[in-house]
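Researcher: We plan to redesign the surface later, but first we want a full-length starting point. Tokens attached.
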């Protein structure tokens, strides 16, 4: 009987991963976005003999709850940090263009979307101002967010070396680490790891209009954004070099 926990870092292909496991687990044994559920529902769900659980919750906040569950296998996907940052900024930025959709999100998200829409992302001074003057929610959203999900520093504090070390230690506890850039290959490996039969993988590409154009070739923009990806780059490079199985 399989017990699987997926640490769903935003903008790493998680919607498609959830859809794949939804096909392979019955309704009563599948729970995504558990951050929206009451604690009692989660505790009851974890008593199942088999289940798939995922959510947008930093790993240290759920670690103690999961540690005593026998035979639990943990998975996580990472994404190239500049692409990850650009995708997340673009997603929140684009929410402003659809006010109905925007109002379904918490006030902090709405405020950040409004703030992002004051900037021209092709103007270097605007990007510098964005990085320099991030709000607390902006720091929590954009500052080395992949390390944040594995280390959980305070939302108002920027990620540091200690957080990186904590993230590298925590990711060693995961059965499988996939990569957004190798999505099809990673999903095949994931299916093989958990001995799940499949014909094809659901791929739900919720692409947004990108605020940064040709980001990887724009050296000046990358230098400005570097503080927001510095530690994510270390996590990503280390994990790609030493694939965890």
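Model: Full-length starting sequence:
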């Amino acid at each position: 009987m399989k017990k699987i926990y997926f640490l769903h870092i935003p903008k790493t292909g998680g919607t498609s991963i959830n859809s794949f496991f939804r096909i392979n687990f019955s309704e009563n044994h599948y729970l995504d976005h558990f951050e929206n559920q009451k604690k009692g529902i989660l505790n009851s769900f974890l008593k199942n003999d088999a289940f798939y659980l995922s959510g947008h919750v930093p790993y240290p906040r759920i670690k103690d709850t999961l540690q005593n569950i026998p035979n639990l296998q943990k998975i996580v996907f990472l994404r190239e940090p500049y692409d990850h940052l650009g995708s997340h900024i673009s997603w929140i930025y684009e929410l402003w263009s659809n006010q109905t959709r925007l109002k379904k999100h918490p006030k902090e998200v709405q405020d950040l979307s409004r703030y992002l829409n004051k900037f021209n992302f092709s103007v270097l001074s605007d990007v510098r101002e964005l990085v320099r003057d991030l709000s607390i929610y902006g720091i929590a959203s954009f500052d080395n967010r992949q390390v944040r999900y594995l280390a959980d520093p305070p939302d108002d504090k920027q990620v540091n070396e200690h957080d990186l070390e904590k993230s590298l230690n925590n990711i060693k506890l995961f059965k499988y680490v996939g990569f957004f850039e190798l999505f099809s290959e990673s999903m095949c490996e994931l299916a093989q790891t958990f001995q799940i039969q499949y014909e094809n993988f659901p791929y739900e590409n919720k692409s947004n209009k990108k605020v940064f154009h040709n980001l990887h070739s724009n050296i000046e923009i990358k230098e400005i954004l570097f503080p927001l990806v510095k530690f994510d780059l270390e996590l990503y490079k280390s994990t790609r070099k030493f694939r965890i199985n």
